[in-house]
Specification:
The protein is an all-alpha fold and 139 residues long. It is built from 6 helices and no strands. The longest helix has 18 residues.
């Protein structure tokens, strides 16, 4: 496991403890009960990632039995195969309609944000994604 993954898992686990354990110290039962309780709020792949993060955190804290119990926890929504209760995937926007683009550009003009206006125009005419902007050179 890479150090970046370990750090991400630690961060996920810490957030889970503060949000779902109501200030009580983590125990295997509290963790698994809270994990099962939020199964309907998340997609199965994220739930599995969260479970892995919690198990890793418990293992790293020196509780291998707790980690094993957490890893053995099954998602109650998918335990017996696909379920209608599993939340649907979020729709991804593939393009911005002309009205939204006009509003965005107008707001940049009003605020005097020339850099953002230019970035939107570069993306519009070249098809470049924002992550590619750093490597754009003009010859």
């Amino acid at each position: 496991m890479t150090p970046a993954t370990q750090a991400a898992y630690r961060k996920l686990a810490a957030h889970f403890y503060t949000k779902h354990l109501d200030g009580q110290p983590p125990s295997p039962k509290r963790i698994t009960d809270a994990l099962k309780a939020i199964a309907g709020q998340h997609r199965p792949d994220y739930w599995r990632r969260l479970r892995n993060a919690l198990a890793y955190d418990q293992e790293a804290a020196g509780y291998p039995d707790a980690a094993k119990r957490i890893n053995e926890t099954k998602n109650p929504l998918t335990r017996n195969g696909p379920s209608d209760e599993v939340p649907g995937k979020q729709r991804r926007i593939k393009r911005i309609d002309a009205q939204d683009e006009a509003k965005l550009l107008d707001s940049f003009i009003k605020s005097g944000d020339r850099e953002s206006y230019g970035a939107v125009m570069v993306a519009r005419y070249t098809g470049a994604r924002p992550s590619e902007f750093a490597s754009i050179t003009i010859q």
